[in-house]
Here is the input.
Amino acid sequence: MMVPMTVEGAEKLRKELEHLKTEERPRIIQAIAEAREHGDLKENAEYHAAREQQSFCEGRIGEIESKLAEAQVIDITKIAQTGKVIFGTTVKIINIDDESEQTYKIVGDDEADVKRYMISVNSPIARALVGKEIGDVVVVKTPNGEVEYEIDSVQHI
Here is the structure.
């Protein structure tokens, strides 16, 4: 099953994978080798800590490789702008009740970061927005009830 991902999200994962393979893995292997030289492995805390780090590192490498293999990388800058909200677009919405504005970029699950205003394509707000156009009013169900937003702008950045 292909999972949508932005170009930036895929690049971030590739950089993390490169770091783990070229820097972390060799460092951990060296730490294990040094800990082995200290003798009895049963009571060697350094050895066990290094092995635990190795397990975490290898697990993360496998996880990233799997995510990248399943990723459908979408470059929003190469898609014609139609004013329609799609994966990867940056959308400015206005709360109809209080006229507050908010801008979100719709990204894949792994890239979502609310503090950076990057929301998952599977979030309630994104699900309400996708497929709509500038000027449309959408209703988002929140824990505090329904909120109406008007789509003010859609950018391919």
